[in-house]
Amino acid sequence: MRFTDLLRVHYQIEESVLPCPIVKLTLQPFVENCINHAIWDDKLGINIIIKAYREGPDILLKIIDDGMGMRRGNDCELPESGDTLSGYGIRNVDNRIKLLYGDSYGVTVYSRLGIGTTVTIRIPGR
């Protein structure tokens, strides 16, 4: 409620992925990070786009924000647990996906300081 005027969420979900299950709390830590860390202008706020679509046999989930971005370089490695940028949520989601589906699935992060962050989550499209 406190971010009503600062937070705009847009959904781009392909119909074909709607019935597909995902691991519980997969998106939550990433959306929460957008809210807690990406808002840099208290007047403009941020846009968050949540996408879900098929790419070959897989499903890609993307959380994209136009917030402040991260200072970790262009292709961000996932923060280690305890890293001040993420807490445990990001690493935990990646580990749970890899345990369930294998190392070819999981989380990648791309961020540019001043431009925003894109988190991509790859899962099998069963």
UniProtKB/TrEMBL annotation:
This is Histidine kinase/HSP90-like ATPase domain-containing protein. Residues 26-124 form the Histidine kinase/HSP90-like ATPase domain. SUPFAM superfamilies: ATPase domain of HSP90 chaperone/DNA topoisomerase II/histidine kinase. The lineage of its organism: Bacteria, Bacillati, Bacillota, Bacilli, Bacillales. PANTHER family: SENSOR HISTIDINE KINASE YPDA (PTHR34220).
